[in-house]
Design goal:
The chain is mainly α. It folds into two domains: about 150 residues, no CATH class; about 120 residues, no CATH class. Helix 2 crosses helix 16, helix 5 packs antiparallel against helix 13 and helix 7 runs antiparallel to helix 10.
Length: about 350
């Protein structure tokens, strides 16, 4: 091949390369490409069902990707602002909702909820006993019992009750026992002064026992109809409320989101958990690498074949993102480099032959 023919071939290939790149750009953004994208994605996913998992998933790459994604820095700097903002925005939407919580819960879910709250173990026994051990519970019990004992003593106090000494003194009045009445009044005052301290002294030790007995009674009678009805009524009550009536304010909601992110960041930085995650992923892929993807999906309780209509809808929804991606300078340069690599190879081959 002479120099002129080589130059002609090179010029022709350069022209083809330019036209090929232009065609590819136009073709990928054409209306036909959208329909082809939907069909191709559905066909590809359908065919991948029969591929062994080990051909689809590379264990080392998956582990590396998870290690890169699950880090304290990622959670703190990338996820935290988004999650806290989402918590505030969701809170703002829910507090404006006029419908009750129950209006979003279907009837069969209500029945399941009632069945769940009918279980006596829905309230953990350990939690009930922990509450009973608290000083706050004992203080509440002391106050309630102190008030009850005071009211009871006022009704049965022989110094003031109608059936007690006042009635007796009326009957003895004609006998001139006025001095006895004064003595009894003195005894009454002294009795009442000592009554309150004695009640509190008694309850100081007894209230703890009373709270524990109450806790054990709640646990022992958890299956009885009145207690089942109480728990189910609490669930019904919650469903009858609006979100605004049971939610914390926006600051507390944001604080809750912040706590959740703090926990996630801590777990992301936990070396032992990271090692266990890597070992689990490697072992799981190794165990299933020869199995078809459809069989692996079925073992996880997932459909072995995603509904084609759903896949096509998702593909259609993602096409604008694909189109935008392919339209970026970086993607355009990549496509052009692939085409150029082919034509440059032809030129090099021709020149080498010559």
């Amino acid at each position: 091949m002479n120099e002129r023919s080589v130059q002609t071939t090179r010029a022709a290939l350069e022209d083809l390369k330019t036209r090929h790149i232009a065609f590819l750009r136009a073709r990928l953004s054409s209306p036909a490409a959208r329909a082809e994208w939907q069909k191709t994605v559905a066909d590809v996913l359908d065919e991948l069902r029969f591929a062994p998992l080990g051909r689809v998933v590379e264990p080392s790459s998956l582990v590396s990707a998870l290690d890169a994604a699950i880090t304290k820095q990622t959670v703190d700097t990338k996820l935290r602002p988004a999650i806290e903002r989402l918590a505030r925005e969701v809170h703002a939407v829910l507090v404006k909702e006029d419908a009750t919580i129950g209006s979003f819960v279907p009837e069969h879910a209500r029945r399941e909820l009632a069945a769940l709250f009918a279980r006596p173990d829905v309230l953990p026994p350990k939690l009930v006993r922990e509450i009973a051990e608290s000083e706050a519970a004992r203080e509440v019990m002391r106050e309630v019992m102190a008030d009850a004992l005071k009211q009871f003593s006022e009704r049965v106090n022989p110094f003031v009750a109608e059936w007690g000494l006042p009635s007796l003194m009326k009957k003895l009045g004609p006998f001139g026992l006025g001095g006895v009445g004064k003595a009894i009044d003195g005894l009454r005052v002294d009795f009442e002064k000592r009554l309150d301290p004695e009640i509190r002294k008694f309850l100081l030790g007894f209230s703890g026992k009373a709270v524990k007995n109450a806790a054990e009674s709640i646990l022992a009678r958890g299956s009885e109809p009145p207690f089942v009805a109480l728990r189910q009524r609490l669930a019904e009550f919650l469903l009858e409320q609006r979100f605004a009536e049971v939610m914390l304010d926006v600051d507390a909601t944001t604080q809750g989101a912040r706590i959740g992110v703090d926990v996630a960041a801590h777990l992301a930085a936990h070396a032992t958990l990271a090692a266990r995650r890597r070992a689990f992923v490697l072992a799981w892929v190794k165990e299933n690498e020869e199995k078809p993807v459809s069989e692996v999906l079925a073992s996880l309780g997932l459909p072995d074949k995603p509904p084609r209509e759903l896949v096509e809808k998702l593909a259609d929804a993602t096409f604008p993102a694909l189109l935008s991606t392919l339209g970026t300078p970086a993607a355009q340069a990549w496509l052009a480099s692939i085409v150029a690599e082919f034509y440059d190879g032809l030129v090099a081959a021709d020149e080498g032959t010559g």
